[in-house]
Specification:
Length: 120
């Protein structure tokens, strides 16, 4: 009986369509940085593959993606963030604009998060 129920559940799950959101890769992204020491906010405009300094950090944008047909929607960007004199990144991964705390950079002085993708 239990085998029949498990088999039936698996068969039903296998028949469900998998919905994946279609995304568009943008040519760049706009990030925002906070220097916690002096409270200064800075907007950082990056193109894909470009690196820019922010305080003692060097921020590199891999790519930025957003939902197809909704450029103001939920952007997510692949970032690599290093301290300028170190090889090991303090952050490397995807940051999501609508949930910056989901995969946040942990740094004692700086916060960086994604605002949106650039569509032009």
């Amino acid at each position: 009986m239990i085998r029949s129920v498990v088999f039936l559940c698996l068969a039903l799950l296998a028949g469900l369509p998998v919905w994946a959101e279609k995304v568009v890769t943008a040519p760049g992204a706009v990030l925002r940085g906070l220097d916690k020491l002096d409270g200064r906010l800075t907007d950082i405009d990056l193109s894909s593959g470009e690196s820019k300094p922010f305080g003692r950090l060097m921020i590199t944008l891999g790519e930025c993606r957003y939902p197809k047909g909704n450029p103001s929607g939920n952007a997510y960007a692949y970032l690599t963030i290093r301290e300028q004199d170190k090889d090991v990144p303090v952050f490397a991964g995807w940051m999501i604009a609508s949930a910056p705390a989901l995969d946040a950079m942990d740094h004692p002085r700086y916060d960086v998060w994604v605002l949106r993708c650039k569509t032009e």
